[in-house]
Amino acid sequence: MSKDIVKPATLPGFLELLPQDQILFNEIKDVIRKTYENYGFVPIETPLIERSEILLAKGGGETEKQIYRFTKGDTDMALRFDLTVPLARYVAQHFSELNFPFRRYHIGKVYRGEKSQRGRFREFYQCDVDIIGNGRLSVIYDAEIVSIIYSTFKNLGFGNFTIRINNRKILNGFFGSLNIEDTTEVLRAVDKLEKIGEKGVISELSKLGLSNDTSHEILKFVKIKGTNEEKLASLKALNLTSAMFKEGIEELEKVTEYAEAFGVPPANYSIDLTIARGLDYYTGTVYETFLDDYPEIGSVCSGGRYENLAEYYTTQKLPGVGVSIGLTRLFYQLKEAGLLKEDSPITFTKVLVIPMEEKFNLNAIKVANTLRANGIVSEIHFEDVKISKKLSYANNLKIPYVIFIGEEETENNKVSLKDMKSGVQKLLELEEAVKIIQEQLAQNS
Amino acid sequence: MSKDIVKPATLPGFLELLPQDQILFNEIKDVIRKTYENYGFVPIETPLIERSEILLAKGGGETEKQIYRFTKGDTDMALRFDLTVPLARYVAQHFSELNFPFRRYHIGKVYRGEKSQRGRFREFYQCDVDIIGNGRLSVIYDAEIVSIIYSTFKNLGFGNFTIRINNRKILNGFFGSLNIEDTTEVLRAVDKLEKIGEKGVISELSKLGLSNDTSHEILKFVKIKGTNEEKLASLKALNLTSAMFKEGIEELEKVTEYAEAFGVPPANYSIDLTIARGLDYYTGTVYETFLDDYPEIGSVCSGGRYENLAEYYTTQKLPGVGVSIGLTRLFYQLKEAGLLKEDSPITFTKVLVIPMEEKFNLNAIKVANTLRANGIVSEIHFEDVKISKKLSYANNLKIPYVIFIGEEETENNKVSLKDMKSGVQKLLELEEAVKIIQEQLAQNS
């Protein structure tokens, strides 16, 4: 009976990894999770599918275009496109059962039907961490977030990275003083400074009807230079009367001061007046994080403070602050840049037990039982194939040890332990073999 | 500006947990993952969305009805309804880059638009573990799977559970000897023995045109009693000439014999000739696992051997064997049965640091830094609220320790450590406090 074969392929924009990369990916995910948990954040998980009216409560052009939306029965539903909207719905729904400040992390996949292109994914992991207050939330939590970003990237093995911090109140206050009421478009233009340069920004600003003088004021502002202290001093020296502007400076000062108290090295964070982020979303502190040696990767961890998380789902005022790591994109880019460990394991198995003939199977199982009981991940190759084939299986998976069980081993109640790196093979008591393997694995870890 | 509030609610059939349950759920998931990894299985992850032609290559009524299928642009896509079809596609697609026998585990969510009812979920976790051979796969791997099921449920803290084992070849061989060619419907009727009883099964069989004699032969067969050895002896004593029947007995004998060699206690597995499972899918060994004290929960881990995993996606012959745990349903049922730990943590935080006034914030941060550096998960309550409110936050989250930082503590360079269980509060050097906390946490873990 011949069948039609369906070509096995994933959809474009959906990353799928081979086991070796998956092990590494999971390792990175575990480091992020562990770091968040060490700061006292609890996990939540929300359904991937929600009612469209929940996910689209806020609306907005790009979201509506990119969302995966469908009906089943009478229900209009969609796949979540971020973890923030589900968080808002979760906190509103379970409000009375949660304790505030609510410290939650959420690591999960989100879906955006973006244009398919290299390094852009339609399914990707976000690793979110947020602190939600009930009615109010101290700005010092904004500094703790800096510390969490720092610990996460340090624990991931990065040394040179910079957390760039700004405050939307400073931006809004400043623009207010220039009588620019609708700052959204201006901020969008300023946000492009790195991409399109000064001239580009001025040209965009003039299109918005701003005078040359005003545009230069804006550029002067966003180009304030120096240490964090110098930048704060320059901002104060502008002597603007805007209350919002002053509040922003005060907050930014606190965040940078407290970030230091949290033990974040000054080299790893700096005030950057050019970052604005998610234009209609954030209301105070905003963060972006860059790998100093790979600025082209863009921000690897971003977020900020928002005044009212769940306004579409509850009348409770729920301010919050948090950041997100786009893990799928980060992983892909680290791999492209050759920054992932090259010697990452292909399997967790440390010992492949090879029975030389079928009649030694039972003995091989006993040996594997003992290895596993001693915490050594082991597997047995039961296939009736040539020993050379079993050895190349071990080689391909870079399994560090092979144990042979044959005539001689069984008669003498011993095992033959082969170190696959050195090629050295020894006839040993099983206990000796266990000891050698444990010692060498401990040395290499 | 007043807004319309969208009622925050999840869709029916989608389980969402509060943090305390989520922590427990993740703990269980971690135990399963760790057990699979200890047997040398590697993780894979596949997209939740695949082309409909991939997911529906096999077709079949229930699947087509229940699947979440939709289009985006010109693409006809759907959400995966199990992890086996994606595994088949994965192995076919990446065949040349994988090493066989390919030992993979996959823990992920799947989607089935089932009728909504208590304890049935439309989104649920499956925890799959499979061994895939290239062209062939020794039946001894079928015994290893028994050992993996055993280790998993033992590691999860279950004592009384039984892995029921059968072999489809025995069933098919036996029915062949009764000249029943289309065994599908007969197996389906036999499969209901526990549910509808003997009379029910006989009535169903007579509807299929079977004589009373034949029906009684079938019932006699499925009711063979005794130890595993006795059951095997009774099967052999039937003296059937069917080659398939004999092969089945041989395999079942090997699986039970080797399961013992793998260290599975005889109390935890038994031959059960009544289980058939996934009627057109499995071709050899089949497994179901029951919690002895809670049979009403049904099988908590099921699976079997299949001859040809990926026949819809490749001409390669890929036999395999594996099992799956439906974790969401299991968790829900354990909770309903009151079998989940009652004292599970609500947070990972062990110490809540409370600055008595804002001016002690910096000192509180230093203390928290030290605690975290010593591996003690800590958080700081920065809100400007009454101390009693901060204490009830600690109480609600069952955080075992509170450290106060106020005037006296700061002046004397000490901390006040309060044991929330005993209520005892002491003024201590920070190092002393760290030592006490570490020792007591180690004792309680």
UniProtKB/TrEMBL annotation, chains A, B:
It is an enzyme of class 6 (ligase). GO terms for biological process: histidyl-tRNA aminoacylation. L-histidine binds at D82, L83, T84, R112, Q126, D130, R277, Y281, Y282. Keywords: Aminoacyl-tRNA synthetase, ATP-binding, Cytoplasm, Ligase, Nucleotide-binding, Protein biosynthesis. The keyword rRNA processing does not apply. It catalyses: tRNA(His) + L-histidine + ATP = L-histidyl-tRNA(His) + AMP + diphosphate + H(+). Homodimer. Belongs to the class-II aminoacyl-tRNA synthetase family. This is Histidine--tRNA ligase. It comes from Tepidanaerobacter syntrophicus. The gene is hisS.
